[in-house]
Specification:
By secondary structure, the chain is mostly beta strands. The chain has 1 helix and 35 strands. Strand 18 and strand 19 form a beta hairpin.
Amino acid sequence: MMRLSAMCLVTFVGAAAMADSAGRIYGKITTTDGDQFRGLIRWDRNEAGWVDQLNGQKVIPRENLKSADRERTSRDRRRTRVRIFGIELGDRDFNFEGGDISAESAIRFGHIRKLIPGRDDDVQLILKSGDTATMTNGSTDFGSDMRELIIEDEKEGETELGWEDIKEVEFLPSPTNATSEFGERMYGTLTTRRGEEFTGFVTWDLDECLANDVIDGEEHGRSRKIKFGKIASIGRYSASGSQITLTGGEEIVLKGTNDVDNSNRGIAISDPALGEVVVDWHEFDKLVLKPAPKSVPYGDFDGGRPLRGTVETEDGDTIRGEIRWDEDETRTWEMLDGNVRDVRYRVEFSMIHKIERDSYRGAIVTLWDGRKIELRGSNDVDDSNKGISIIQPGKKDVYVEWDNFRSVEFTK
């Protein structure tokens, strides 16, 4: 196991940030050699708040993809050809000869009680609800490709751990007075070139997320590094540069790095009442940074519940019960994926009031706060949707194909 001091990890200017840290990820880490560390956690560089997401793939049990034992509801009652992850399959029976298949998944850290590494880069999650979930292929969020995990231990200070060091992570409520050398979680409002606005916790270039992180670039041929905590706004200057306005009013144009030009990987906004949106550089116009109005503490997350609601078909039938969306998502902590132009959405189901099929290519999603989003470009919301199952106690599952689906209203 490797332990590094704050001076070895990164050099900071200024003292530790004093702020309400209730929204920061916090917990106790037990290592494979028996050491324990407790403190604020920075996960894989770009996750530091309870609203941030752990990404991976979730296994879809093969039985979820078989419709032979269900009451089918299709407008023309014909077998149809469908696509899963871009692969066309013969019919809706999904009679796979091999094992289970997997689908992209994500969960906000606030829903997790414990995280236990498994074999082959798998991870087991024990949720607050008592449910368990297994994820695989976590890219850099977990497994051998994880970039780093830093815990600011209350006694030893900053300690960097690799995935192979971790036996168990137990997440705990964050003390409001905890201090962090990395600063506060960044927050602001992003405006797109089409005039849309997104407000929430910011991750710049899908990497920098805390106030003492730096944006770097070149000004007049000289390299510059500026802490995000000193920045009032970042605006598009051109495809190859950004205009930085500092809190003191100074304006700087930076070029020459993926932080400030069209090689930027995107700007993520974690909206507590939505989920996450990622805005591609081509759609980005301006980001205004500001203090968060309030933190989102660990206690605001429940670990998820079964999806329940009422489905209406094009035939005029209404079916009420537990819902398995796209034969995949069954819990409120799970995410509905879709796109709007160069903006990628990942909407937590607990935030969704209603989904209406708009066409074979998309759906209209209404949030509980009244916002409406027209989503496309994902098997969650287009004709490659694998179907919606409604589970009713004592009855056969009702299976609604996308072409016969009209809408669903979820219950809180």
